[in-house]
Structure of TetR/AcrR family transcriptional regulator:
Amino acid sequence: MTGQSVIMSESATPHRQRRKEARPSELLDAALALFTEKGFSATRAEEVAQRAGVAKGTLYLYFNSKEELLKAVIRHTLSSAVADGRQRLLEHHGSATEALTELLPTWWEEVYDSPSSALFKLVITEVRNFPDIAEFYAQEVIQPGLAVIQALLQRGIDRGEFRPVDVEAAAHSLVLPIIMLCLHKHSVGACALAEAMVADPRRIIRSHLQLVLRGLQAHSSSS
Amino acid sequence: MTGQSVIMSESATPHRQRRKEARPSELLDAALALFTEKGFSATRAEEVAQRAGVAKGTLYLYFNSKEELLKAVIRHTLSSAVADGRQRLLEHHGSATEALTELLPTWWEEVYDSPSSALFKLVITEVRNFPDIAEFYAQEVIQPGLAVIQALLQRGIDRGEFRPVDVEAAAHSLVLPIIMLCLHKHSVGACALAEAMVADPRRIIRSHLQLVLRGLQAHSSSS
Amino acid sequence: MTGQSVIMSESATPHRQRRKEARPSELLDAALALFTEKGFSATRAEEVAQRAGVAKGTLYLYFNSKEELLKAVIRHTLSSAVADGRQRLLEHHGSATEALTELLPTWWEEVYDSPSSALFKLVITEVRNFPDIAEFYAQEVIQPGLAVIQALLQRGIDRGEFRPVDVEAAAHSLVLPIIMLCLHKHSVGACALAEAMVADPRRIIRSHLQLVLRGLQAHSSSS
Amino acid sequence: MTGQSVIMSESATPHRQRRKEARPSELLDAALALFTEKGFSATRAEEVAQRAGVAKGTLYLYFNSKEELLKAVIRHTLSSAVADGRQRLLEHHGSATEALTELLPTWWEEVYDSPSSALFKLVITEVRNFPDIAEFYAQEVIQPGLAVIQALLQRGIDRGEFRPVDVEAAAHSLVLPIIMLCLHKHSVGACALAEAMVADPRRIIRSHLQLVLRGLQAHSSSS
DNA sequence: AATGAATGAGCTTTCATTCAT
DNA sequence: TATGAATGAAAGCTCATTCAT
């Protein structure tokens, strides 16, 4: 469902005893998929184990509790795509306009297609039950994510590409729709009849960036 | 899985409907609050009853099961704010620009402040476990919501206020950040340390609408 | 097995809903019997419930955990027989010899026949797993129990009935065998073939007290 | 329940007995310590292995099950101190008084200090769960132990050292406090605050034997 | 109509035991 | 022989639901 190579490995050793190193991430992948699909509380520990191809008890060889598994899932998944795309933006030295039209849509489409997209739903759903997720998420995702976008916008303003806008608010204008599309993908979007409901998310992302870019650009008359 | 339009089915039997209308809306309010805060699965039926000030057994006098309570909560809450704001937009006959700068922000702030804002989180969180919510939500919220925004945008284009843009995509640009802010309010935003994380949502909404409006307006140069 | 009226009550209301007040002590009685027979760890919570005539879940209506049930059993059972017999000794004002030949054997036979006899085994068995039992037991049983016996012996010495002996040690000489007989009753003594192993405990108690009494008395030659 | 003399049955097949003798007595020592401390049921097989310095699987190379390990522990530990002390008493040919004042206290202090002292607790605790322990214990410990003490007392009576007392009961008077002190050592006595609770067990044993000896001796007036 | 004691299916977690290495 | 990853039966505990009052 959420992709990742949960099952694709090792059809040659069908029974007991596989590799201890691979187990944790197989379990994490299975857990991410199920926690995102059904919610943490509605997912049984045994389901996670089954989807990872192991028995119930094996799960507890690697994680002390279901809750610790959740925390590990979040920690594990956050590390990947977000920081990675951020890196690309930091290394970019072209015009801000160019970054908005080329870098951002590419990065966000990757996020949308990756398992990280599921994480947004997971965090939104579970923070209130596990408040220490909030701090971790804020520090690892929200702050650095917004910071890099705000820096980009500020650069555009400094270079004269953009009007002097409320940079903080504008960053939200850019980011929030993509997160919302990720959430949608893993909720209503995953239900049968809602397929035609939202048009191709790629089209929406690119269109959105164009629209905001135009709103930002300096050479239009002010409101 | 089971039925498809379970949520709507009861409006087909208006006989006992009266009794259901009379059902303590305290229970529905309590359920909305708790389901949103902790998730459906993690909320105990007794908690709902307690918060509503009645005993556990009383809940089952009005709802046959916890699941039926969830459906009732969604049905009950959707009826209010969404349809109401839609009405206001339909009755509006001024310029599209005016609608975007005055009507929309006002309505959305009302939604943001109302219990309806919680509903977005609830639906996002629970659709995959209760697929018939999807149909109901799509028909009652997504479709009419997008339709009215798209109509507004189309009107703006027809009147020459806006450039000819991808109306469907632009509607998402307008709507998604708003919904995302509602979700945020009930998840990360409700956690202690994340207060300063996101600036005042009202400022973000107004700023966002201004930005998109500029992007839509005809008198700027095309990309 | 260990007696007490666990089942003897209420054959008129065979199904649900009995008296809330009676439940806890029915459960405590059942728990004492089973914990003593099989040990705390080897006793399943459901067994306790079954023997008390209720369902598994009902147990948890009255005790938060199996461990808390254990503590409650100990607290509840200690209160009765020990303190009671102690009272009798304190109120006795005849000769120490008389107390040893009449009061003590009567009291100890009562303890031996009562459910309290089981408690010795339970405490011996479980203190090391639940160290706070130790403090409670020391303060409620060991200290007051030894104190009253030592006072009795001291009185005998002061009155010239007994030789001046090591009062503390002599108290142990008196008390330890009876406790040991209680332990035996609930361990080896409860097994089929061991019935003839230990002669009638009453005979042993009375004989033991006679023997020690003679050893204490002043008019024999010193060693 | 199942067999009756399971514990003894293996001494009937002396073929593989050699192998069992060779089994790491570290495992048996570790098991005795842990079973005594926490009880059989509350001790995990892996703990035993760990304390013996081997891996979990190794334990099962030597013992087919945790239960068989328990039986082996009891068999192994009984062989040593009890039979040994018995031997010394049988070989003693001085006066009964001398035996009581010199032989017995020495032997019992050895038992008290040896791992055998733990065995009393183990048997008391577990007989009811493993009834065939009872037969083994009765035949190997209780009967020979009481027999030798009773013979000693009878000898004392025959020689005119002791009054003609109830030999069976008097044997219990001598033995029970000693066993009780062993139990105490491994239960309440092992807990922090109970150290001062019971005075030095050596003093109690010696004092007890003196007291009983005086009660037995012929030259005091009858009751 | 309202209550809350009682129930038992169901879930999390543990641990004796196995077996591939 | 020794290991320890894997298993799954079994135990503790929860909670949706019922029903006598």
